[in-house]
Each structure stands twice: as structure tokens, then as C-alpha cells.
Design a protein that fits this description.
The complex is a heterodimer of chains A (169) and B (104). Chain A is an alpha/beta fold and 169 residues long. Chain A has a single domain, classed as DsrEFH-like (Hypothetical Protein Ychn, Chain: A). In chain A, α1 packs parallel to α4. The longest helix of chain A is centred in the first third of the chain and has 16 residues. The model of chain A has no long low-confidence stretch (mean pLDDT 92). With 104 residues, chain B is mainly α. Chain B has one domain. Chain B contains 5 helices and 2 strands; from the N terminus they run ββααααα. Chain B has a two-stranded antiparallel ribbon. In chain B, a hairpin with a 2-residue loop joins β1 and β2. The mean pLDDT of chain B is 93. The chains are: A alpha/beta (169), B mainly alpha (104). Chains A and B meet through α1 and α4 of A and β1, α3, α4 and α5 of B.
């Protein structure tokens, strides 16, 4: 059916101008658990939402220069692979599973973790490191990815993200 | 499918207003679409739109921000300056293409 509109039909990109804010706490260092936060942060930024990521505990592996390019995926303890659990414990299985997952991600043209963080920073996203995790792992700011703005306490993060929608991953 | 009139062009659009017919687009219309969303086209804007249109023709799909930066060579930071807040959708709109369907 064809209808003729009198006023031009234009997407309302700025109609719903809000001060929407999103805060994502990344607490895991497995390859498969790194991506949900990154993908959601990237999507939120593309929608004009102010986005903050807070890396804590194992999530520090995502911003630690030594580990960020080398996150792993393991079948162990993950029943969603629908493989016998004993298989996951065999030598070499974690690196094989990691390789396969990395390939599947790359096939979708989704970047690896360091490049993804760069894309998020370029899109205006804010990256914060957790003070307690830094102290526990004896890491300083120079050990962390360059786009990490600062190492801050949990309370500073809560303060910075006042009014934000919060995701814990 | 609705038809709407922008700058004296009758164009087929989807429910949100994105153009649905690749061949109904031309540069003059692109500039008029941009004006509708508060963007004044510059040579930098056209570089992005030209890439999107060419890439769509090749791939049959609207490029995501990542593709525009990695394949088109136009930095992400700049895209957010040229098409503020919602660059992927705004670029697609001006280029007369559907919204990108990819997540990244």
C-alpha cells in the first residue's frame, strides 16, 4: 500500500535527546566473557549514549598489556559447549577452543580485544581500571592499555556514573 | 511502503524514513537528506557517503562504523565528528541506504 506523507518522513535521530548513561563493569578475563561488555559498549556509543567501562578483578586481563591480546576460552566448566566435560581437561584443548573462538569472531569482522578497546575509546568511551585490582596485582598505570584514563576506586566509579544504567559482566 | 517527498523528490522509505530504493538516490538528494537531520555536507562527509554507497553496491549490506574505518580508511573519531551521536545510522540515512544490521 502506498501512502503520500504531507510532512517529509525523516528518522528522529535527535528527537529523543537524553542524558542516558551506561556503566559496564567487566569482571571476567575469559575471551568469551570479554566480548559482551565490549559489544554493548560499542553499540551504546554508536547510539550516542555516554559509556563507561570499569575493569575489575579478572577483568583486568582485558586491559593489562601483558594479557589483553591473549585471553583464552575454555570448555572446562562450561556446559554450553555440549561436549563431555572430561574432554576440556585434555592437554591442548583450551588453546584449540581459543583458536576456534577467535576465528569465529574474526570471521564476523569483530576485532580482537586491544583493537576493540581502541575503537571504543575512539568512539568516546571511557575506560577505568579498578584501584584494588591494580594493588592486588601490583600493576601501575603504565602496565595498562594506553587508553585507560585512570586507576580509580570503586567509590570514584560510582560517583562518575551517577544516574547511569549499570551492567555487571 | 510509504513514499515521502524531500526536496521535490518522491522517494520510497521504510517506516522510520530510511530510503529503500538504491537508485532513487542522487547527490542533490543526499544533501537534502543531510539537511533534514541538521548536517551540512562537506567534502569529508561526501567521502564517507561515497564509500558507503560503493560498498553497499559490492556487498549488498550497509557498512558498519568498523567497516567504514577499517576498509574505507575513515577514522572512527572523525565519523563521530561528522555525524554526531549516531554516526552509523546518520551516515546510512544520508547515503540513502538501510540501517546497518551488524552489531559491530
Amino acid at each position: 500500500m502506498t501512502t503520500i506523507e504531507s510532512a517529509p518522513l525523516v528518522p528522529s535521530f535527535d528527537a529523543e535527546e537524553t542524558d542516558r548513561k551506561l556503566a559496564i563493569i567487566c569482571s571476567k578475563g575469559n575471551l568469551d566473557m570479554a566480548y559482551p561488555g565490549l559489544i554493548l559498549a560499542n553499540a551504546a556509543l554508536g547510539e550516542g549514549v555516554e559509556t563507561h567501562l570499569f575493569f575489575t578483578f579478572w577483568g583486568f586481563d582485558m586491559i593489562n598489556k601483558k594479557t589483553m591480546g591473549d585471553l583464552k576460552f575454555t570448555m572446562l566448566g562450561n556446559t554450553a559447549t555440549h561436549m563431555p566435560q572430561g574432554l576440556g581437561g585434555l592437554p591442548g584443548m583450551t588453546s584449540m577452543a581459543t583458536r576456534q573462538m577467535k576465528k569465529a569472531i574474526a570471521d564476523l569482522d569483530v576485532p580482537e580485544v586491544p583493537e576493540f578497546l581502541q575503537q571504543i575509546a575512539d568512539s568516546g568511551g571511557h575506560l577505568w581500571a579498578c584501584r584494588m585490582s591494580a594493588d592486588m596485582q601490583h600493576l601501575e598505570k603504565e602496565d595498562l592499555y594506553d587508553e585507560v584514563e585512570d586507576i580509580i576506586s570503586a567509590s570514584d566509579f560510582i560517583e562518575k556514573t551517577e544516574g547511569a544504567q549499570m551492567l555487571f559482566i | 511502503m510509504p513514499v515521502t517527498t524531500i526536496a521535490d523528490h518522491d522517494i520510497h522509505v521504510d517506516a522510520e524514513g530510511f530510503m529503500t530504493e538504491y537508485d532513487e538516490w542522487n547527490q542533490q538528494l543526499g544533501a537534502a537528506l543531510a539537511a533534514q537531520i541538521g548536517i551540512e555536507m562537506t567534502p569529508e562527509h561526501w567521502k564517507v557517503v561515497d564509500f558507503l554507497r560503493t560498498d553497499y553496491k559490492d556487498q549488498g549490506e550497509t557498512a558498519t562504523l568498523r567497516r567504514v574505518s577499517t576498509v574505507g580508511g575513515l577514522p572512527t573519531k572523525q565519523l563521530f565528528v561528522l555525524f554526531p551521536k549516531k554516526p552509523a545510522k546518520k551516515m546510512a540515512y544520508v547515503a540513502g541506504l538501510p540501517k546497518p544490521r551488524g552489531c559491530v
